[in-house]
Structure formats: structure tokens, C-alpha cells
Sequence to fold (280 residues):
Amino acid sequence: MNSKMNQKINQVTENTLVVGMDIAKRVHYACFVDERGRMIEKAFPVHQSKEGFESLYDKILQTMQETEKTEVIVGIEPTGHYWMNLAYFLDQYGIPLVMVNPLHVKRSKELDDNLPTKNDKKDALVIARLLKDGRFSYPRILKEIEAELRIGSTLRSKLTEDLASIKNRIIRWLDRYFPEFTQVFPTFGKMALATLEKAPLPQDIQSKTAEELVFLYRQVEGMRAPQLPKAKLLIETSINSIGLTEGTQMARQEIATLLRQYRLLESEIESVNSQLAEMA
Fold:
């Protein structure tokens, strides 16, 4: 641990310009200090835009020339995802970007004025002074296939969460209008989804024969061989259902909407999985 800390401290020499930045959504603040934490340039705004980033880069070069510095290190306190655009911009110019622990920032700024309150300009200076003490870590700047896989994996996770949310809404719908449904279909297989698409309410099923239901289900895309015994059991279950019988027009609209969203998410997840597998 001490060896790693020493390596970080040794990175900041008398030839290093230390840049601390407080990150925000629209306007960041940057502060320049030397290797001992003495202020070279007090905190100034950096807009989250191409012009703002280029202005920061020009100011870094100018200050390095004026102070005869040959190296530069930029440090930030990670705030959501707002730092990522800046990180990739700096990477294009070979400028290393590191991160400081938010807890260290909170504790350290109390040393200056005994106030832990949030202040963008003050935070930028605190971050810069943490850098010269080696209190930082290195973020991974993903590129090419690694970036694709990370974004794809995050997308897949989000889609899976959305699918689970839609599934829970379908279960809630069933609890109101057809609570006995899960006795016949414990999981959301193809026949279960076909049933909800073609005959979602108990009263839609009661008046039909098992053969008629099977014929209906075959009309659903991807449904090749509906099970006749399941259809018979479904009819028997629907006869004694305690499901709600009011508001059925909009109930049909609700379940139809949920099913469309469910099938779309399934399709999107399958597509993302296929692309990720090919990349991997």
C-alpha cells in the first residue's frame, strides 16, 4: 500500500502542473496548483462544451509554458457520468485524468475554513491539493471493443430490469382480473402469453371449447403447438374465477399494452445478446 502511494506521490514533481476540477452538469471549475499545493491559477469556470474544453486545454498549455512545467495531471471528484466527456477529450491529448475519493474531499475542505459546505471553487482547490499528496486512483478509459461491450452490457441490464418491471405489472393485472391464471401457467411461456393476447379475461374463455382456444392460440406468432390439456384446465379454472368483472374494456387495453411492451423488450434483449456474443 505504501509503495503504491509513494509511486503516486512521486508522479507529482516540481515539473508538474496539478489541475483540480470540480465536475458539474453544465459548468465545471478548474484550479491550478504546483507540486506543493501553492495556487498558480485560482478556480475558473470550464463549460461542458467543445469550446470550453479547448479553452481549458489552451490555458493548461499557456500555464505550463509560463511556469516552465513539462508535465500535467488533472484530477476530479467523480460526479455521475458528467466527467466522461472531459476524460475522453483529455485522453486525445495524452493528458492523464485521475479521481479522488469524495469522502477525502469532504474531510479535507474542512481544514481550510472549518466549513464542510459545498462550493465549486473551493472543491477544485481541495481536489488539486489531494493530487499532490498522491490521494487519487486511475479510472479506466474504455476504447473500441471494450467500450462496446461495457455499453452493451449496461444496456442489457437496463432492458432486463424493464422486462422484470413489465412482468410485475402483468402479474398485478392478473391478480385483479384472473388470479387463478398462474395455477395453470406458473411461468410466462409462449402459451401463457398467447392466452393473454387472445383471451385474457375468464369470461373470454368460459364460452369456448378447448379446441377453439387452441385454434386461437395457433394464430399467435411463434405459437406452434398449444397444449390441449392446458386449454381444458384453463376453461375449468376460468369458470370459478373471482376476477373483477368491471372496467373490462380498459383492462383489455391495459394487458394488450403490457404484452406489446413485454414482447418488444424480449426482442431487444435477444438482439443485444446476439451482438454482444458476436463481439465477444
